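Reading a protein record of the kind used here takes little practice once its layout is understood. The reader may check this reading against the record printed directly beneath this paragraph.
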Amino acid sequence: MRSLPNQLPAANSRRPFRFRRLWEIRCSSASSELGSPGLWLRESVRHQSQLLGIMKHRMSFLFLSLLLVPSLTTMAAAQTIDVNTQLKNVADKIRAKTVAWKMPEAKLVPELEELDAIYLQHKGENPEDLANVLRFKATVYWSVVDNSEKGIAVIRQIKKDYPNTTVGRDADGIISLIQQHEEIRKNRRALINGAKFPDFSEKDLLGNPLSVSKYEDKVVLIEFWATWCGPCVAELPNIIKAYNKHHSNGFEVIGISLDQDEQKLKSFLKAKEIPWVQYFDGKGWQNKLAAKYGIDSVPATFLLDRQGKIIGQDLRGEALEEALTKALTNTR
């Protein structure tokens, strides 16, 4: 999943591409496979079909929200550096907190209140700035908090109070895209701890049959990732270490790559000596399995017990090791 129409906030970090999702996690902001993030922000809603594609496969809020920051000064000459800086500060705080694919609103109350304070501080000033502050707030709601209803309400407020701004004019298109994005997220919400991970039947990178059920009675880590994703690559040493330590005891990994270049992926796997199977279809964010499970940010991981039930999500480092040790010592 990626972004709203016309200059939506975006961000990057060591956190998931949303998203885990930030500056460097723009996973190489210049990634040729993703296109230029700056261009996304400058596109208008008249390019709805292109934007819908971006939206459906958006990276996380943080990718979106922090992308807004560096581009604010070029979006409109009238926008002030003051507002730009203030929004960047809020984005940085949210980035520091966001470690899962969504966050409870209660944990973001200080940042939401800060956005309200910024809005009140500049009320009566440049309408474009004020609309951008509200748009940022809307993005936090629909992308980080996972509350599309509140996000849409804020966009409607922009349409009502600032109809002649860029966001105000594009409000209907933005709302439409949020609503379509909501359909995608329904699949993601079903993947909760304790639920059986829905199986699939595909071919792996080498053309062999691949499914979750193939690893019956194994503890399995399903990893949605990409070679161009900084946070994904940064976490690989931990997964490799866990695999080498626990593979003989029944630990398996299934990689689901959102890469588009097969040869580049194969070269990367060889160079990093990654031994586990990979699913690859070359479709990037439109990856068949990513779409099936509503994945809109990477890395996204699911740890399954021997019965195929989800027992952990987005576990990193020591958290993964602890969960693995516990799962593998459970009675078969």
In short: The chain has twelve helices and seven strands.
